[in-house]
Amino acid sequence: MAISNGVKILITGGCGFLGSNLAREAMQRKYEFVIFDDLSRTGSEENLKWLQGIGEFKFIKGDVRKQNEIENVISEFRPDAIFHLAGQVAMTTSISNPRKDFEINALGSLNMLEAVRNYCPDAFIVYSSTNKVYGDLAWVRYEEQNSRYIAPDFPNGFSEDVPLNFTSPYGCSKGSADQYMLDYHRIFGIKTVVLRHSSMYGGRQFATFDQGWIGWFCAQALQEKLGKLEKPFTISGNGKQVRDVLYADDMVNLYYALLENSKKVQGQAFNIGGGMENSLSLLELFDLLEKELYVKLKYVELPPRLSDQKVFVADLSKIKNFTGWQPKIDKEIGLKKMLDWLQNK
After folding, report:
1. CA-based, 20 to 30 A from 237: which of 48, 61, 115, 341?
2. Geometric angle at alpha carbon 174, from 168 and 175, rounded to 5°
3. How far apart are CA 337 and CA 71, in angstroms?
4. CA–CA separation, 285 vs 246, rounded Å?
5. Contacts of 149 by beta carbon, 8 Å cutoff, 6+ apart
6. Model confidence over 212-234: pLDDT tens digits?
7. Residue range 53-74, pLDDT digits in tens
8. CA dist 125 to 89, 162, 200, 225, Å?
9. pTM over 0.85
10. Would you tell me how many other CB atoms lie within 10 Å of the CB of residue 146?
């Protein structure tokens, strides 16, 4: 085990994109930490090997759906903080297998909360939720421009005051866990904070067709540049849907800023993303990639995905007020870093 400066962290889902970046930072801070992961995600085994090659920590292969497994690690390790990232993250998977989606996201999170309540009630928990808890936002007024949709009534993005509206199995399962986190603070005094993430990207992200759109389309563009794409790739919708994008380093800084402000932020939910200045539509991403890589991207439009949001950009006012955190890495710089990682991984 690495030399500890006194802080003990448990990272569930610690071999995923977000988890592996947080684990590397824990190493640099000389925190003692445990990774709990079932290694089911694409790239998780590669991330585990990468982490094992750069530092020391304890790895436990486990499944949050199995109550005894998460209880064992929490009762034995007794962490000071938990980054609860283990989850089923693909909308498409939630629709094809709603029970599995529920068991991982909702039941798995409840298992973790109960283990903390029973064995480690002073632990500080950061839960990785999603903007999908707000539903498809079909009630919002949109305007269609040449390369993107805009929501003119929300010029700074969507705040935490937007009504919750769980749609799709994924939205229901993540939303259930989101609300359990907040309610365990209200009812039991558990020190939870909820982050409703927009889009994240960066190194250690092994993106797939249905998860990690920045990484996925960067990979498609690189394949096009190398002449390895046998046919055009596909997109869902017309490409004008918009998200704000947050680079991995900014994301890591946020999670550790929450540890430093744990008393202030517990019991709160925050919308998290790159903010309006780091918002991108698919068409705008393709334009940046074409200019950066000197390629012409060819794609085929499919029907929009079920329950997709035309626009989601996080209003960062609340998280800035509570912690002072704000993104520092511009989307164009972050995109170049993403491409560099993909070419050298």
Report:
1. 341
2. 85
3. 38
4. 14
5. 142, 143, 240, 241, 242, 281, 310, 311
6. 999 999 999 999 999 999 899 99
7. 999 999 999 999 999 999 999 9
8. 19, 24, 20, 43
9. yes
10. 7
Torsion of Cα atoms, 315 then 311 then 287 then 21, to 10° = 50
| CA pair distance 197, 334, nearest whole angstrom | 17
Catalytic annotation, residues: 170
User: Given a cut of 50, is residue 2 above it in pLDDT?
Assistant: no
User: What is the rounded distance in angstroms from the CA atom of residue 248 to the CA atom of residue 220?
Assistant: 20
Asked whether 26 and 9 are in contact (CB, 8 A), the reply is yes
Q: In 10 A of CB 278, how many CB atoms?
A: 23
pLDDT tens, position by position, 285-315: 999 999 999 999 999 999 998 889 999 999 9
312 and 135 Cβ atoms separated by less than 8 Å: no
CA–CA dist 191, 123 (Å, integer): 7
Q: How far is CA 137 from CA 151, 160, 239, in A?
A: 10, 13, 17
* Phi, psi of 99, deg, nearest 5: -65, -45
Q: Does pLDDT of 3 surpass 60? A: no
Rounded Cα gap, residues 26 and 329, in angstroms: 21
pLDDT tops 60 at residue 123: yes
Q: How far apart are CA 274 and CA 199, in angstroms?
A: 8
